[in-house]
Amino acid sequence: MKKVKAKINFSTEILVNINYLNFKLKTDELDYPDFIGGYYYFFNLSEKEKEKYHLTNPEFLMQHSDHKDIFDLTINKHETN
Fold first, then answer.
1. Whole-number Å distance between alpha carbons of 36 and 25
2. Mind listing the pLDDT tens digit of every residue in the chain (81 residues)?
3. Separation CA 70–CA 73 (nearest Å)
4. Which of 12, 23, 33, 38 is 20 to 30 Å from 62 at the Cα level?
């Protein structure tokens, strides 16, 4: 029997405390820390260095935001085995 799930895509704008932000290094670079917080990300990294990191906790941020808006929502049926 196939499982039916919903595949959801959207853009969002949220307002959160900078302390809630957590980032992880995308690749193993010896001269950069593996994990950093929001203050370090915004105040110690250049725009080029910021590109080396990705956000690790989007679900937590959505749950703990002061304000959130969702734009461009699309929902499609997605079947899996």
1. 8
2. 788 899 999 999 999 999 999 999 999 878 899 999 999 999 999 999 999 999 999 999 999 999 889 999 999 988 776
3. 7
4. 33
Tokens of 21: 């932000």
Residue 14: helix, strand or coil by DSSP? strand
Tell me how far CA of residue 58 lies from CA of 16, 76, 77, in angstroms.
11, 21, 23
Beta bridge partners, 64, equal none
DSSP state letter for 66: S
Strand order in the sheet with 22-25: 35-37, 22-25, 53-55
d(CA 65, CA 61): 6
Q: With 0-12 CB in 10 A as exposed, 13-18 as middle and 19+ as buried, what is 45?
A: middle
Place of tokens 């929502």: 73
